[in-house]
């Protein structure tokens, strides 16, 4: 495959017997997507739940439409700390050593240790959906006797946006169902700062919704890959699946909807959001705005940083404190939802409405969820350094050119006219580059003859 696609990256690790132990592969499209949406990465190891599935994991993220995007895959035959370390290091090298802001994985001491070594500057989170799924197996008797238990547990985890409210709700569930002495739930509570949203307020996770899980590649794995399917067959099927994901993203990029079909409040804030956000991001903003209009806000402190209290129906658990600076055009809410998802929360929006803020302040929007997410400078987080890469390095120049070519391909594929124009421009550019190369070769030959 690497010979067929020069933008394809693949690295294989072998053991002492020269047998494959692990592998990592990334294609040019995955690299391109990572430059835009690599701020939050999920290492999907769904295969470990089913012994009949071959051990193929995926590095995934979320694009500006709220859909899954794949950043690469790994074959894991040796599940040790050193193997995970090699996989993460190899993948990071394929991504020019650009770190995400957050890195989400399943539980596991070996994996956690590898993440700490390779991604020390990233916030490492455990996947709460995998933890909820495991709860069903660990608490089978409770689930059987109390059909409503799972929904209550999900509401507690996903619906509580501050630590005190979560702790209160969690405790009430333990008391209601007599689970104070359950060792499984005790172990989960001890690591709550690694997976409960109320505790994860210091990093970005690219989640538009806490209650709706983005479709991962796990369903594709279950339907297409078992231990009886060869790796080459799976990779071909996966490439087809990737094609469909990119086609879906391109289709959503060019689809537009009349504003009158989307608006529900007819406020300027909503109209502005509809004009800048993608459909999925706008719907999240819209839901927050509608909720904001159901909340009550009161200013409790004046000054450079005004303090507001916002709550709904006089219900104390819904009460939040917001600081708002007119000079900085910034607002901070104790729910910290903006840091988590980069969409203004209902409490901040309620303060904006009360304060007469007509347009969403620029500091309260991020390009990541907008229709222009894939234009201009990329978003991705931290560069941990690539000492071998430079303007004089062939590999670096090659990767840079592939990146630009992928941009041309994205824009040129949206219509037949754009396709024809892009093909002609690329053909002319190729002929000019080819001519330059032949001229340089001729000059080099003349120089060599003259120096004899």
TrEMBL record:
Pfam families, per the entry: MULE, SWIM
GO biological process: regulation of DNA-templated transcription
GO molecular function: zinc ion binding
Subcellular compartments: Nucleus
Key words, A-Z: Metal-binding, Nucleus, Zinc, Zinc-finger
Record-annotated SWIM-type domain positions: 324-356
Key word Protein transport present: no
InterPro entries given in the database record: FHY3/FAR1, MULE_transposase_dom, Znf_SWIM
Predominant place of localization: nucleus
Gene Ontology CC, one term: nucleus
Task performed by this protein: Putative transcription activator involved in regulating light control of development.
Family: Belongs to the FHY3/FAR1 family.
Protein name (Swiss-Prot/TrEMBL): Protein FAR1-RELATED SEQUENCE
């Amino acid at each position: 495959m690497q010979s067929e696609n020069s933008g394809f990256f693949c690295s294989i690790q072998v053991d002492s017997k020269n047998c494959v132990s692990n592998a990592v592969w990334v294609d040019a499209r995955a690299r391109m997507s990572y430059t835009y949406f690599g701020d939050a990465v999920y290492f999907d190891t769904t295969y470990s739940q089913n012994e009949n599935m071959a051990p193929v994991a995926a590095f995934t993220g979320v694009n500006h439409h709220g859909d899954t995007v794949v950043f690469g895959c790994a074959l894991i035959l040796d599940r040790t700390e050193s193997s995970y370390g090699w996989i993460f290091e190899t993948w990071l090298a394929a991504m020019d050593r650009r770190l995400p802001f957050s890195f989400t994985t399943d539980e596991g001491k070996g994996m956690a240790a590898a993440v700490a070594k390779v991604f020390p500057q990233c916030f490492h989170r455990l996947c709460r959906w995998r933890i909820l799924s495991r709860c069903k197996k660990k608490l089978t008797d409770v689930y059987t006797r109390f059909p409503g238990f799972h929904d209550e547990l999900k509401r507690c985890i996903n619906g509580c946006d501050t630590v005190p409210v979560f702790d209160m709700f969690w405790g009430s569930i333990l008391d209601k169902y007599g689970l104070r002495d359950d060792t499984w739930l005790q172990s989960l509570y001890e690591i709550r700062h690694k997976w409960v949203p109320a505790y994860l307020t210091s990093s970005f996770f690219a989640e538009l919704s806490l209650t709706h899980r983005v479709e991962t590649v796990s369903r594709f794995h279950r339907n297409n890959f078992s231990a009886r399917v060869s790796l080459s067959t799976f990779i071909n099927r996966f490439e087809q699946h990737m094609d469909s994901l990119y086609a879906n993203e391109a289709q959503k990029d060019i689809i537009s909807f009349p504003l009158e079909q989307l608006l529900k409040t007819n406020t300027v804030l909503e109209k502005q959001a509809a004009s800048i956000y993608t459909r999925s991001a706008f719907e999240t903003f819209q839901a927050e705005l509608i909720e904001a209009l159901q909340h009550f806000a009161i200013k409790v402190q004046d000054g450079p940083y005004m303090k507001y209290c916002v709550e709904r129906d006089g219900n104390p658990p819904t009460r939040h404190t917001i600081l708002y600076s007119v000079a900085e055009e910034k607002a901070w809410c104790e729910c910290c939802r903006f840091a988590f998802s980069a969409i203004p929360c209902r409490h901040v929006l309620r303060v904006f409405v009360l304060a007469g803020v007509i347009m969403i302040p620029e500091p309260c929007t991020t390009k990541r969820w907008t229709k222009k997410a894939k234009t201009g400078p990329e978003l991705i987080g931290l560069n941990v350094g690539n000492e071998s890469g430079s303007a004089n390095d062939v590999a670096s120049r090659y990767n840079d050119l592939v990146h630009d070519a992928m941009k041309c391909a994205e824009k040129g594929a949206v219509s037949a006219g754009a396709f024809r124009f892009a093909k002609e421009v690329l053909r002319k550019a190729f002929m000019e580059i080819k001519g330059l190369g032949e001229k340089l070769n001729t000059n080099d030959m003349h120089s060599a003859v003259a120096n004899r």
